[in-house]
Amino acid sequence: MPIEVRIPTILRTYTGGEKAVDANGGTLSALIDDLEASHPGLADRLLENGDLRRFVNVYINDEDVRFIGGLGAELADGDQVVILPAVAGGAGDQVEPAAS
Amino acid sequence: MLKLDQATYDAIVAHAKRDHPDEACGIVAGAEGSDVPARHVPMINAAGSPTFYEFDSTELLALYKEMWAKDEEPVVIYHSHTATEAYPSRTDIGLANEPGAHYVLVSTREHGNSEGPVEFRSYRIIDGVVTEEDVSISA
Fold this sequence. Notes:
CATH topology of chain A: Ubiquitin-like (UB roll)
Helix content of chain A: 10-25%
Number of strands of chain B: 9
Distance between the termini of chain B: 16 Å
Number of strands of chain A: 8
Largest sheet of chain A: 5 strands, mixed
Order of helices and strands of chain B: EHEEEHEHEEEE
Shape of chain B: globular
Strand order of the largest sheet of chain B: 3-2-5-6-7-8
Radius of gyration of chain A: 14 Å
CATH architecture of chain B: 3-Layer(aba) Sandwich
Number of domains of chain A: 1
CATH superfamily of chain A: Beta-grasp domain
CATH architecture of chain A: Roll
Helix content of chain B: 10-25%
Structural class of chain A: alpha+beta
Radius of gyration of chain B: 14 Å
Oligomer: heterodimer
Order of helices and strands of chain A: EEHHEEEEEE
CATH topology of chain B: Cytidine Deaminase, domain 2
CATH class of chain A: Alpha Beta
CATH superfamily of chain B: Cytidine Deaminase, domain 2
């Protein structure tokens, strides 16, 4: 059973409009490689300098991956992955770290 | 054009005034494809800052899951600027990731937490291009 990945509106240009796609991988990193193979260009929207982009949130079974190992977070068949861009902004010209 | 009912408008303005001098943020959800803002959801600014806002990542997921369950989408995404005009900053433009949403900015710079008018403006932000639109408030 593959892993279902929920794709946000802004990235559906890479998935032919699909809201969710299936992918495989034992870690988040491997999953993103597999996504990239099927949907070229997607990885660049998720990664920057070899890490997850600051304003892209990825959840595995409702857990923010930043708290469970980031790109190394482990995945098993049947897991659910959600990708959501941060909702953020503000008057300043420089972004600030979240208080949490 | 953004069409908004008076009660939702008032609630957004009250939220912005309450959180001043920090930026307030939230959404108004509506049925997918309807372009009708129907359900106001004030969010906590996890950055707790006068110059930046960010939805808490756990609350963000909960919010989207609730919208998916109800076949809703974010029709309006709003936040306040507390010392500058109600116009999208470079940061706002760079981080605007909902091409279908009306981005509302409220400026509380004139009256802060007190009574008094605010600037309340709405924009489309698509691929880094900002287009202001009229706001129509109805009963």
